[in-house]
Design goal:
3 domains, Helix Hairpins, rod-shaped
């Protein structure tokens, strides 16, 4: 009996001694359980997870962070306060402490919320990687960045992160590459399969709303080129007309002098040529007026598109602005 008691006590002691190791190994699972206890994702949050084609594991990470969508820029920036002078559309609070997404409802920008949600979910996922896995993923991301990345917008984005968040560049690569680049090397595609059933859906959202900005920007650039060319032409016409006018005035004075001096023969001989000269000048003036009208019309069209672009940009401009006092 004593032997059985000793065995039971020894077994219990072993269980108690090993319990911390089990708890440590399962700490993330226990934390997740606590975070999700009684949690039902709002419809908008569940829709984002579905629209992003998140895997069950990615959806789990997403929900653990209890995502919030906020349309009020002041309230949103209270939650996402870093880099207050930059445009921020979402943020992940480290150690699985939450995800915030800025609510954008303009139909032209459909996809912004989806890409932002996936971007922040990948930050939370990256936070969970073991040191070994993180080293492996970092190597894949760095290799792609150094040798295969050709999208200038993404390159510029990474350069901006090097200035604003130098210690988080690879972390940002993980989120940006995974949500905004359609085609990645097979090793990276395999890695992202852990989080997306079909990653192309998320990249498609990014391409769709980025195309809105690209199209308007390209239109403005095209009009700017036309305006520069037309402006050069107008300047050339003005210089030519100025020279022509000087010649017209000189020839007019010559004819007036011939007429006043009684040299009617010379006067009559020069009238037709002078009138042709005046007609050419007047035609040039009219062409200049038409070109100026065309220029002004192009300016109006160009500025209208620029205003549309500015309005689109304002929809996602979450930078804090100064407030007037009373």
């Amino acid at each position: 009996m004593r032997t059985l008691k000793k065995i039971l006590v020894g077994a219990l002691l072993i269980v108690l001694l090993s319990l911390p190791l089990v708890v440590y190994a399962k700490a993330q699972a226990i934390t997740d359980w606590w975070q999700l206890r009684g949690y039902t994702p709002p419809v908008t949050v569940a829709q984002l997870a579905t629209q992003d084609a998140m895997t069950p594991y990615a959806r789990h990470i997403f929900y653990v962070n209890r995502p919030k969508l906020t349309g009020n820029v002041t309230i949103f920036r209270q939650e996402c306060s870093e880099n207050e002078q930059t445009i921020v559309l979402g943020c992940y609070h480290p150690d699985q402490q939450g995800i915030d997404v800025y609510s954008v409802n303009d139909p032209r920008l459909n996809g912004v919320q989806q890409v932002t949600a996936a971007h922040e979910m990948l930050h939370a996922a990256y936070d969970r990687l073991s040191s070994h896995d993180k080293k492996y993923v970092d190597g894949l991301l760095e290799d792609y960045y150094q040798h295969d990345l050709t999208d200038q917008r993404i390159i510029d984005t990474m350069k901006a992160y090097q200035q604003t968040e130098p210690g988080q560049v690879v972390n940002e690569m993980n989120s940006v590459f995974g949500t905004e680049i359609p085609n990645l090397p097979s090793a990276l595609e395999t890695y992202y399969q852990k989080y997306f059933v079909n990653r192309q859906i998320v990249a498609g959202y990014a391409q769709s709303y980025q195309a809105q900005f690209t199209d308007l920007t390209n239109q403005i650039s095209g009009y700017d080129q036309q305006l520069a060319s037309l402006k050069q032409q107008i300047n050339s016409e003005e210089q030519s007309l100025s020279s022509q006018l000087s010649q017209v005035n000189a020839d007019r004075a010559k004819l007036d002098s011939q007429k006043s001096s009684g040299d009617i023969t010379s006067y009559n001989a020069g009238v037709d040529s002078f009138n042709s000269e005046v007609d050419a000048y007047n035609n040039g003036v009219q062409k200049l007026k038409n070109d100026i009208a065309d220029y002004n019309a192009l300016v109006g069209t160009r500025n209208s598109i620029a205003s549309e672009l500015q309005g689109l940009q304002s929809e996602i401009d979450t930078r804090l602005t100064t407030q007037s006092s009373k």
